Amino acid sequence: MSTNGNPLNRGNLESSGSIDAKIALKAALMIEVSNWIAENNLTQEDAAVVLGISRQQISDVVAQKLSEFTVDTLVSMLIRAGKKVSVSVSSFDPNQTTISCWSEPKNRRAKLR
């Protein structure tokens, strides 16, 4: 049985809505990484050093090459960039995905008493 390159024809079928949500999630995470680079006036080389990846991988993120990265890898990049990532998916509409990324001041520490 030929899959003809269609991801929906895999033995482990996913709905097109599920695939669309994953693509939207990856794209949103890549935009957050790209925005972080721009906001911090970083070169691709500098961003690569901070994130612990190659300059080529930074180029691929900025170019939105979705197939090159997993969601886990993109989340890890944002965490290394000092961001906290929160994902919310509506149970009523799997196509609605909200991505929130924010930074906490690095000198902020919780005091426990």
Would you give an account of this structure?
The protein has 113 residues and is α+β, with helices and mostly antiparallel strands. It is 44% helix and 12% strand. It contains four helices and two strands, in the order ααααββ. The protein has helices spanning 16-39, 44-51, 55-62, 71-80; strands at residues 83-89, 97-103. It has a two-stranded antiparallel sheet with strand order 1-2. Helix 1 (16-39) packs parallel to helix 4 and helix 2 (44-51) packs across helix 3.
Number of helices: 4
- How would a textbook summarize the main sheet? 2 strands, antiparallel
In round numbers, the mean pLDDT is 76
The count of DSSP E runs of length 2 or more, i.e. the number of strands, is 2
Based on secondary structure, the structural category is alpha+beta
Shape: globular
Please state the CA-atom Rg, rounded to the nearest Å: 17 Å
Provide a concise account of the structure shown:
This protein is α+β, with helices and mostly antiparallel strands. It has helices spanning 16-39, 44-51, 55-62, 71-80; strands spanning 83-89, 97-103.
Give keywords.
single chain, two-stranded antiparallel sheet, 4 helices, alpha+beta, globular, disordered C terminus, 113 residues, disordered N terminus
Topology:
Blueprint: H1 16-39, H2 44-51, H3 55-62, H4 71-80, E1 83-89, E2 97-103
Helix pairs in contact: 1-4, 2-3
